Amino acid sequence: MHVALIRKIVSLKKAGAERYAVNLARQLLRLGHQVTVIGESIDPELMDEMEFIPVKVRNTTSWAKNQSFARNAIEAASIGFAVKVVEGAAFIDQVE
Q1: Which of 13, 50, 54, 63 is the most core-located residue (most Cβ within 10 A)?
Q2: Are strands 89-94 and 81-86 parallel, antiparallel or unpaired?
Q3: Up-side HSE of residue 72: CA atoms within 13 Å toward CB?
Q4: Domain of 51: which CATH number?
Q5: Plot region of 87 (φ>0 → left; ψ -120 to 50 → alpha; else → beta)
Q6: What DSSP designation does 10 have?
Q7: Residue numbers of the domain that contains 87
Q8: How far apart are CA 44 and CA 51, in angstroms?
Q9: Quick one: pLDDT at residue 89?
Q10: What's the pLDDT score for residue 91?
């Protein structure tokens, strides 16, 4: 299965959801799945482990940044893929 994880920041240098996303991606890779991370930033050392699609975010107020990220992340996930979003994670299959 090809799984896309959508998370603004994916990092082992932070705690919480940022670290959880790394651990989830690594476990899915160990189970043989293809993982694509879609986000604003990722630790450089993680880019060798998983595919990363960067998302540009508008630098304005906090709510505008979040809205910009959400809109741009879904757009990035839908280019070239059929997307099913489930609980914040997108499960994608390549469209030929």
Answers
A1: 50
A2: antiparallel
A3: 17
A4: 3.40.50.2000
A5: left
A6: E
A7: 2-94
A8: 12
A9: 46
A10: 46
pTM of the model: 0.76
| Per-residue pLDDT reduced to its tens digit, 76-95 | 877 756 555 544 544 444 44
Task: Say which residues have a Cβ less than 8 Å from residue 6's Cβ, sequence separation at least 6.
Answer: 38, 39, 73, 74, 77, 88, 89, 90
The span from the CA of 88 to the CA of 96, in Å, is 25
60 or 26, which is more confident?
Answer: 26
Q: Which two tokens stand for residue 75?
A: 């757009």
> Residue 54: CA atoms inside 13 Å, Cβ hemisphere, count?
7
Per-residue pLDDT at 80: 59
What is the distance between the alpha carbons of residues 71 and 68, in angstroms, rounded to a whole number? 5
- Total structural domains within the chain: 1
d(CA 10, CA 23): 10
